[in-house]
Amino acid sequence: MTSRRNPQLNAHGELIHLLSIEGLPRATIHQILDTAGSFLSVNDREVKKVPLLRGKSVFNLFFENSTRTRTTFEIAAKRLSADVINLDIARSSTAKGESLLDTIANLSAMHADMFVVRHAESGAPYLIAQHVAPHVHVVNAGDGRHAHPTQGLLDMYTIRHYKKDFTGLTVAVVGDIVHSRVARSDIHALNILGVPEVRAVGPKTLVPGDLREMGVRVCHDMAEGIRDADVIIMLRLQNERMSGAMLPSAGEFFKTFGLTPEKLALAKPDAIVMHPGPINRGVEIDSVVADGGQSVILPQVTFGIAVRMAVMSIIAGNLC
Amino acid sequence: MTSRRNPQLNAHGELIHLLSIEGLPRATIHQILDTAGSFLSVNDREVKKVPLLRGKSVFNLFFENSTRTRTTFEIAAKRLSADVINLDIARSSTAKGESLLDTIANLSAMHADMFVVRHAESGAPYLIAQHVAPHVHVVNAGDGRHAHPTQGLLDMYTIRHYKKDFTGLTVAVVGDIVHSRVARSDIHALNILGVPEVRAVGPKTLVPGDLREMGVRVCHDMAEGIRDADVIIMLRLQNERMSGAMLPSAGEFFKTFGLTPEKLALAKPDAIVMHPGPINRGVEIDSVVADGGQSVILPQVTFGIAVRMAVMSIIAGNLC
Amino acid sequence: MTSRRNPQLNAHGELIHLLSIEGLPRATIHQILDTAGSFLSVNDREVKKVPLLRGKSVFNLFFENSTRTRTTFEIAAKRLSADVINLDIARSSTAKGESLLDTIANLSAMHADMFVVRHAESGAPYLIAQHVAPHVHVVNAGDGRHAHPTQGLLDMYTIRHYKKDFTGLTVAVVGDIVHSRVARSDIHALNILGVPEVRAVGPKTLVPGDLREMGVRVCHDMAEGIRDADVIIMLRLQNERMSGAMLPSAGEFFKTFGLTPEKLALAKPDAIVMHPGPINRGVEIDSVVADGGQSVILPQVTFGIAVRMAVMSIIAGNLC
């Protein structure tokens, strides 16, 4: 049975947590994207709220600061009419030496219905999901270098929105693949959805050859990596990689792997350009491209709210 | 008249603020516990919100950080449908040199309905209650070493839930009594509710003999302190006491006063173990006890939400 | 056409942003004050909420900390039933090097309906208003030394409330005029509303002669400045001006320009005393005056909530 290996699904195969895209059935991903699509019209209506999580308490547990991601979950939960409690974990009991599981047990005893968890440690959301009561749901909002599944899902929503069908696409993921939970979630999702060619593009320090085990084509040459691509996903270059052993310099990276109009011209004429944000203009992407007609970076943000509403309402509905 | 001495009650003896358990009529305490009981079913319902404070503005004024306590009040207020405003006092006008009473006057002018106040200075919530307009209510969420009345009330709810009647009980409060506002509130409540034997258990540095004035039996011997107890309330040992003049070491404290299964065996077989949290595993309590069948530490947390909802709705309803 | 020069108004002359009082039509100011008046009864009702912004998402973007001002906007938005998202900008992507306009573009893509912006740079709210989509509205909550229009409007509400008619008044603004966005907004509003005599009162370092260009009478003598005034607006003396080149000392400032009962006696007998808060007792104002019968400092705070509700509901209703 799937449920034994996959703690995200209940005995009926229904989604009860979102921890990772790895191991999600293709139908579950499409269910999330379809539900997100139905919420998008909600976002354009005058009154955007729906009562699907009315009376539910959603806790944002950000052990790692991320105002942007926390805000998207807060908006999504409020549009579902949930009560949202933001916990500043850095200053809470955890700082007093309380263990992660004791913190979770206490918040559960306050009748939390959902935890949205970001944590620097890979696997922390799994640990939490294993210890919560059956009526409590967990969403991984990014754990270590492991996974960022809602980002992966919103990227899939974006690709489906613009390209309709996954089965004929070439998708290039460009940049610091090895340290990126976004890349990892995207690659798993693209594989599950049947994308025939997924390329991991970047220097050897950031895109080592063993990434081939994830079912990607590794390209250390930018031209080869984006030639005839339908979709280009640029990753944010973290500041801490920009100097030292990993990379010669930000300028050098831009020259070789930064997405300029010239390089973009190698992709298909209708290729779309994606980025999880926040963008580093002039580091991994040229402003002309970021603001250009092929960029779908801002629609990604809009779709992200709808995808998070979809995930939250689906897992909350699967009470087992 | 009671109201002259007790600023918590109006001229009709109704509760309008919750500042301290000291001086509360026994009937008022039972009214709060009864009301909390009626909210507990609310917490198990699908939609947990009740509209009792709809349209009211509750301000969390935490002059001292406490994410855990602030969260319980935020949840309680939101489940009563109040608007909750969390003020980060450390960064506010108070830091600019505005006095406490000027801050309160300004927030009152914004039509605050309730202040939940935590302050390092004993008596700060009294000072505030003396200066607010008649329609504004104050809840003490912990002031200095003085009082933590909602913790005291949730502890009484817990004891009543498991032991039904207070009048035959032996209750042991163990640990750092002298610095604990929780202990102080618990002891006052136990006295008011007619508990015949309340014991204060711990080393002489943390349980000085003059505590006897509070109507407790002082025990410097752990075995004597918990023998035949019905209820054991373990207190959190603050880090700053663990070294220096007060205590030889955390390890030494655990050896003598830490609650282990062996020591717990001295209490009545159906004794319950309580703790205000967050627990220090291996300092004041053994994990086997904290997670064991006699521990009611997590139910305390659940009851705490209901008790805070009860306090807030009762004082808001007593408009004079 | 007005709309070309004034980005606050749409093609029909309707208010769509509130960026500055400068350039607002007198009728628009009166419309805001009239609307605020209608909300004031709301603040006294048992249920204070009105559903005018139900389902709208209001983002508090405070690039400069101000708990007090942020709180007034949060309360106002919640009383209009909006969803409020407070962004701690100092810790957000902006800190990661994202530009102001990229931050705004991203939040807009999350379907923000309104931005309440405080920024240390004069003009930042204008820049934002120029780049948001037509359905998004911007309120300036204070930008650099430039403007603080909602403070100016609540000051006008206060004056109209107590003095009924602007056209016969003498208004003295006292203190650090040159660094004060409040003074600037007040002076523009008083001019637009037809106050015949506006005086800027203070030492030459804080009230330079070229302020006359704003249509005020510059007074370096306190007695001359407040004699026969109907309204005295005392400004907060910022700590950083109290020593050094600008002023000899706080004590010296109080002696010369601090509002004492003796100096207040020079004004009209029914003069009102205003202050934007937080007050520095004994620096710019004597406690006897601040707490006295002519002080309307706390009513200003109450009116401020109603004025902010008025501004938010008016600009949200002017969808173009």
TrEMBL record, chains A, B, C:
<feature type="binding site">
    <location>
        <position position="118"/>
    </location>
    <ligand>
        <name>carbamoyl phosphate</name>
    </ligand>
</feature>
<comment type="subunit">
    <text>Heterododecamer (2C3:3R2) of six catalytic PyrB chains organized as two trimers (C3), and six regulatory PyrI chains organized as three dimers (R2).</text>
</comment>
<feature type="binding site">
    <location>
        <position position="277"/>
    </location>
    <ligand>
        <name>carbamoyl phosphate</name>
    </ligand>
</feature>
<dbReference type="InterPro" id="IPR006132">
    <property type="entry name" value="Asp/Orn_carbamoyltranf_P-bd"/>
</dbReference>
<keyword id="KW-0665">Pyrimidine biosynthesis</keyword>
<feature type="binding site">
    <location>
        <position position="236"/>
    </location>
    <ligand>
        <name>L-aspartate</name>
    </ligand>
</feature>
<feature type="binding site">
    <location>
        <position position="96"/>
    </location>
    <ligand>
        <name>L-aspartate</name>
    </ligand>
</feature>
<feature type="binding site">
    <location>
        <position position="68"/>
    </location>
    <ligand>
        <name>carbamoyl phosphate</name>
    </ligand>
</feature>
<feature type="binding site">
    <location>
        <position position="278"/>
    </location>
    <ligand>
        <name>carbamoyl phosphate</name>
    </ligand>
</feature>
<dbReference type="InterPro" id="IPR036901">
    <property type="entry name" value="Asp/Orn_carbamoylTrfase_sf"/>
</dbReference>
<feature type="binding site">
    <location>
        <position position="151"/>
    </location>
    <ligand>
        <name>carbamoyl phosphate</name>
    </ligand>
</feature>
<dbReference type="GO" id="GO:0006207">
    <property type="term" value="P:'de novo' pyrimidine nucleobase biosynthetic process"/>
</dbReference>
<dbReference type="Pfam" id="PF00185">
    <property type="entry name" value="OTCace"/>
</dbReference>
<feature type="binding site">
    <location>
        <position position="181"/>
    </location>
    <ligand>
        <name>L-aspartate</name>
    </ligand>
</feature>
<dbReference type="GO" id="GO:0044205">
    <property type="term" value="P:'de novo' UMP biosynthetic process"/>
</dbReference>
<dbReference type="InterPro" id="IPR006131">
    <property type="entry name" value="Asp_carbamoyltransf_Asp/Orn-bd"/>
</dbReference>
<comment type="pathway">
    <text>Pyrimidine metabolism; UMP biosynthesis via de novo pathway; (S)-dihydroorotate from bicarbonate: step 2/3.</text>
</comment>
<dbReference type="GO" id="GO:0006520">
    <property type="term" value="P:amino acid metabolic process"/>
</dbReference>
<dbReference type="GO" id="GO:0016597">
    <property type="term" value="F:amino acid binding"/>
</dbReference>
<feature type="binding site">
    <location>
        <position position="69"/>
    </location>
    <ligand>
        <name>carbamoyl phosphate</name>
    </ligand>
</feature>
<feature type="domain" description="Aspartate/ornithine carbamoyltransferase Asp/Orn-binding">
    <location>
        <begin position="168"/>
        <end position="314"/>
    </location>
</feature>
<keyword id="KW-0808">Transferase</keyword>
<feature type="binding site">
    <location>
        <position position="148"/>
    </location>
    <ligand>
        <name>carbamoyl phosphate</name>
    </ligand>
</feature>
<comment type="similarity">
    <text>Belongs to the aspartate/ornithine carbamoyltransferase superfamily. ATCase family.</text>
</comment>
<protein>
    <recommendedName>
        <fullName>Aspartate carbamoyltransferase</fullName>
        <ecNumber>2.1.3.2</ecNumber>
    </recommendedName>
</protein>
<dbReference type="Pfam" id="PF02729">
    <property type="entry name" value="OTCace_N"/>
</dbReference>
<dbReference type="InterPro" id="IPR002082">
    <property type="entry name" value="Asp_carbamoyltransf"/>
</dbReference>
<dbReference type="InterPro" id="IPR006130">
    <property type="entry name" value="Asp/Orn_carbamoylTrfase"/>
</dbReference>
<dbReference type="GO" id="GO:0004070">
    <property type="term" value="F:aspartate carbamoyltransferase activity"/>
</dbReference>
<comment type="function">
    <text>Catalyzes the condensation of carbamoyl phosphate and aspartate to form carbamoyl aspartate and inorganic phosphate, the committed step in the de novo pyrimidine nucleotide biosynthesis pathway.</text>
</comment>
<feature type="domain" description="Aspartate/ornithine carbamoyltransferase carbamoyl-P binding">
    <location>
        <begin position="17"/>
        <end position="160"/>
    </location>
</feature>
<dbReference type="GO" id="GO:0005829">
    <property type="term" value="C:cytosol"/>
</dbReference>
